[in-house]
Amino acid sequence: xxxxxxxxxxxxxxxxxxxxxxxxxxxxxxxxxxxxxxxxxxxxxxxxxxxxxxxxxxxxxxxxxxxxxxxxxxxxxxxxxxxxxxxxxxxxxxxxxxxxxxxxxxxxxxxxxxxxxxxxxxxxxxxxxxxxxxxxxxxxxxxxxxxxxxxxxxxxxxxxxxxxxxxxxxxxxxxxxxxxxxxxxxxxxxxxxxxxxxxxxxxxxxxxxxxxxxxxxxxxxxxxxxxxxxxxxxxxxxxxxxxxxxxxxxxxxxxxxxxxxxxxxxxxxxxxxxxxxxxxxxxxxxxxxxxxxxxxxxxxxxxxxxxxxxxxxxxxxxxxxxxxxxxxxxxxxxxxxxxxxxxxxxxxxxxxxxxxxxxxxxxxxxxxxxxxxxxxxxxxxxxxxxxxxxxxxxxxxxxxxxxxxxxxxxxxxxx
Length: 415
Known about the structure:
By secondary structure, this protein is an alpha+beta fold. The protein is built from 15 helices and twelve strands.
């Protein structure tokens, strides 16, 4: 390790040197396209110097940053932190930390490298919440490497800080743009996914109830009250591990709530339940039973290791599990990217149904605090963003008012 090699590739030269191993596998840094061996060697020498300059030398483990973070997750995070927190940390590490510094040696990392990592992520428009989460991961992981594991002598994350908040306005925050789904677009979507299609009810629950995607697929029959015309939203379905294991968790922001549903939604739920019971009867012993961490009798979530029979409102034929990823096909169809599908709405995403629901409620005169409670928002500002959409109806009203004012001015001038 540390020795620069060169080799000829076609008519040009390439340099290479070994990086810290990741998962026991050798990793290499290469650079190609140099006219001569000397140019390749010079470029390789500079690249190696930059690689080694990521920190100070110390007699410590030769493991890579990537391998260390796997160690930290297993030996600290999974033992001390909630499973939902661990899953968030794993995702952040996989997407943002390992790609940037994972191949460096743990012993060579220093504060400047970590500070640059935060600055680079900030320049992409990353939200301050996500950036703060990554900083917290870095701070905790490197503190553990220094104090508990004693892999390094100096904590490189001790004094790292988030980029100045005043810079946010210059960079801009990367946020998904959600739209208002106009009535004609909604009708075309429902025509493409009519009643009887597995995605029809999830779409309806998003549009008419404002449920989040995970809440839609986490809804169980014990939470539907046909007499009171309400549904209890007390959980969401998520795939924390990324390996196809779906489990139930509390709703986002701990926003469990009971909402009133309209007669048309209630009627659809009744028809859906009848069809599911008929399907179960026809399948008999072959009907698939789903087990998850939920107690239907007491309406409470259980530890993720305590799995019990659950009966989801959204279920596929034969009792097969319906989950949030099923909506990916719907999106491809609406975007016109699926086979033999035309574009219905290029800017569509499921969360836009939630924005649309909030906007329609606001237009109908429903007070913002009631909309906030229905959507399960933690503050009013978030609800205001959901209702801050310009609709075709608003534009029509504006045009009518402008024309009226114009005609009034003409009449006044004539008088």
